[in-house]
Amino acid sequence: MALSTPGQVLRETYSAESAKIQQHFDATGDGRGVTEQRAALVDRIAVDLFRHFFPHESKPATKLSLVALGGYGRRELFPYSDVDLLFLCADSSTEERVKSAAREFCQALWDMRMRVSPATRSLSECTKFHSENPEFNISLLDCRFLSGDERLFAELHDHVLPTVVSRNRSALRENLAELTRQRHAKYGETVFHLEPNLKNSPGGLRDFHTACWLERISELAGEKQFPPHPGRTSPKLNAEAQRAFDFLAAARCLVHFRQGRDDNALTYELQSVAANLGLAVQMDTPMPPADWMRCYFRHARVIFTLATQLLDDAVPEKSSLSDRLGEWKARFSNSPFTVSAGRLAVREPAGLQDAEQLLSLYEVVARDGLRLSRETEREVEAALPALANDGAAIPGLWAHFQQILVAPHATDALRAMHSQGVLVRLFPEFAAIDSLVIRDFYHHYTVDAHSFITIENLQNLRGKTSEWEKKFADLLS
Predict the structure, then answer these.
(1) Do residues 209 and 265 both lie within one domain?
(2) Could you report the per-residue pLDDT of 417-439, keeping only the tens digit for each?
């Protein structure tokens, strides 16, 4: 239907079409489809409003473009997510001239109960890197033309942004790394929250977007142009991560529809609703909430691993690396392992099929606090099928494992072993608590995550000085 005037007709259209989108979700559980359908609906309304409020500027070559940013720019608009818009002006005089009409345009969207996040910028402003506003820099990576001056948008998209990104790629990556560190710290550095935030928790949708942005920055810096594929479907993002996105997208749509607002907390109550629906697993096939949450945690772990690996590759740790390179070179000169760019790697990947060498790798992690390189993580996972199915059949398992447990960075090693599937391979019993949800006052995380935190707290007793902490530290020794 062609929309022609603002006001009641538009409100009724938006309400009716939104109800159809929700009905589609209730029938299919297709979260990705919902986000694309809502973006298409808002496109129609925004373009029609633009023509109404900017009758002259809505034509080509008139110095004003309406641009979608962020999730809206990616055509990933969740039921109650903000609509991020940019009024792109050719110059400052145009920017001043359109301010009043831009306010009226946004008010019309707000009257439809949309949450709008507008920005008005001249093209020259977009050529600058805004170090004080990293979120705006990042949002431009997902810009998409809606209406107005196509040549002006093409100048932004095809020339300005590739140049800005190429020139400031290191700063952009560092911005992303810092924003991610702050967000992960806020949520306890773990994916295993019993009531996670689907957007911001480690392993949430923001981590998936971070992976997409890192790939987009690399592509723009390398090719000096936007690639033909959308921002969330880079061929470098594996199929497993795409499935994880679909699962989390479905869960976030459920939360939005049930709460009637931009709420991303996956509460116990909503976990039960999702499990009863078999959401994103097998629709209309109920399952226990704990089993459904295990599916969530495994998908979140995939996204978290992808995002952290890409961040490690893009922003290598700088602290004291140069000071320790000589020490590591000497230490690993006659070792099957080596250190490159501050990450632990193996000289001969085939050697990882030997359980003793595999365990020795994690002993180094536990002793030195080094992280495995991305390639080594893949090599470990490839070597696992060659190991015995039960660690009890591996000679000397406990002697090696004991060395891991008493080392200074034991929990780093244990978490790495868990993430790569080594713990369950060596100790099949561990599968019983892998991503296990227990809903009681004492558990804030899954049982496996709680176990690692307990070991970490024991490790942290070393060096404590208060009377009671020292007594516990003596017991630990």
Answers:
(1) yes
(2) 998 889 998 888 998 988 888 87
Secondary element (H or E) of residue 451: helix 447-460
Q: Alpha helix locations (H) across 264-396? A: 268-277, 289-314, 321-331, 355-368, 374-383
pLDDT class of 95 with cuts at 50, 70, 90: very high
Whether 375 is covered by a domain: the verdict is yes
Whether 9 and 130 share a structural domain:
yes
What is the mean pLDDT of the segment spanning 250-274? 97
Q: What residue numbers bound the domain in which 368 lies? A: 328-432
Cβ burial 145-181 (10 Å sphere, 16+ → b, else e) = bbbbbeebbebbbeebbbebbeebbeebbebbbeebe
Residue carrying the six token digits 């991610």: 180
Strand (E) or helix (H) holding 452: helix 447-460
C-alpha distances out from residue 186 to 54, 174, 181, 251, 415, Å: 43, 18, 9, 21, 19
Q: Is residue 134 part of a domain?
A: yes
The 10 Å CB-count burial string (b at 16+, else e) for 203-224 is bbbbbbbbbbbbbbbbbbbeee
How would you list the strands of the sheet with 64-68, edge to edge? 116-122, 83-89, 64-68, 144-148
Query: What value does the mean pLDDT take over residues 318-333?
Result: 55
Last residue of a domain, one of 167, 200, 217: 167
Per-residue model confidence (pLDDT) at position 2: 44
Q: Are residues 267 and 366 in the same domain?
A: no
The residues, ordered by sequence, that sit 6+ positions from 205 with a Cβ below 8 Å of its Cβ are: 198, 199, 245, 248, 249, 252, 303
Do 423 and 401 fall into the same domain? yes
What is the mean pLDDT of the segment spanning 185-195?
A: 89
Report if residue 421 sits inside a domain: yes
CA–CA gap between residue 446 and residue 401 (Å, rounded): 23
Whole-structure pTM value: 0.83
